[in-house]
What we know:
This protein is an alpha/beta fold. The chain has a 5-stranded parallel β-sheet, with helices on both faces. Strands 4-5 form a two-stranded antiparallel sheet. The chain has 11 helices and 7 strands. Strand 2, helix 6 (137-148) and strand 3 form a beta-alpha-beta unit.
Amino acid sequence: xxLIRQFEEGAEDSYMRGLIHGTMHLSIGQEASAVGICLGLxxxxxxxxxHRGHGHSIAxxxxxxxxxxxxxxxxxxxxxxxxxxxxxxxxxxxNLGANGIVGGGIPIAVGAxxxxxxxxxxxxxxxxxGDGANNEGAFHExxxxxxxxxxxxxxxxxxxxxGMSTSVERATAVPNIAxxxxxxxxxxxxxxxxxxxxxxxxADAAIARARRGEGPTLIExxxxxxxxxxKSDRNRYRSKQEIDEWxxxxxxxxxxxAELVEFGILDEAGIGAIRDSVRAEIAEAIAFAKESPAPxxxxxxxxxxxxxx
Length: 309
C-alpha cells in the first residue's frame, strides 16, 4: 500500500513539474481495495482495470520502473510509451490492461473467464470498476452472462462515492451497489474498502467459490479518493470536512499500520523502514524513467496494437 501511494504521489509531483503530459486519475486513499483483492491471486489469475488503475497494476506485481517509464512516454514502459497512465498492461502478471472507457473492462473480464472455463485452466479473473460503471449497460449484461454460465469471475466495484462529480446517491437507485447482485443470482458482498483485512477475507471467499466452479461474486468496496476525479478536477462538489474526515479517521494505510503494531507484527521502526525502502524504490524508478530513451519517430506506427509473436 505504501508503494501504491508513493508511486501516485511521485506521479503527481512529476506532473506538476511538467515531466508528465496529459491527465491522470489517482487512487490515493483506495490502496486497501487493490491490495486486499490481489493478495489471493496468482500470476496466472487475471485482472482488468480502469482509468484509475495504478494501484491494481502494482498490487498485481507490476514493476514501478516500467510504470513510470510508461508515464514518461519512454520505450522502456510497459506499452513502449504508447499507452500512458490509463492503458498500462502486463500480461506476464495477468494484468490484461486498464481501460479508459467506463465499464469497458467488465465484459473483457467475462470473456477471459469464459476462456478459463472452456480450457479448464483453473484461472480466476477479477474485474475492477468504479461506482459510475454500475449504471452502464455493459455491467448488467456482463453480470447476467457470467451468472448464466457460472464463470470464474469476480466483479469488484470500488465505490468511492462519486462518478466524476456526481454522487452515488444522485445516480444510483439502490442504496448499495452490491444489492444488484441478487438480480443475477450471485452473492453480493459489501466490505469496508479501507480495511485491507476485510477486503482480503471477502476476496478469498469469492476466489474459492470461483475456483470450485460455483460462479461469480460481486464485491463492493466502500472507499474514498482523496484527490479529484482527474488533475483538472477542482473538487468543488465535496466539502473539505468530508475529505479531511476520510483522510484523518479512515486512512487505509494508517489503519493497517495500527493493526500491525497492536498484534506485535511490526513496530514503529519497522514501519519506518518500509516507508524509507519504498521512498528509495520510487526515487530510483523516476530516475530510470528520466534516463530511458524516448521512442523514435520512425517507429510511430509500430507496437500500436500488439507485438508480433
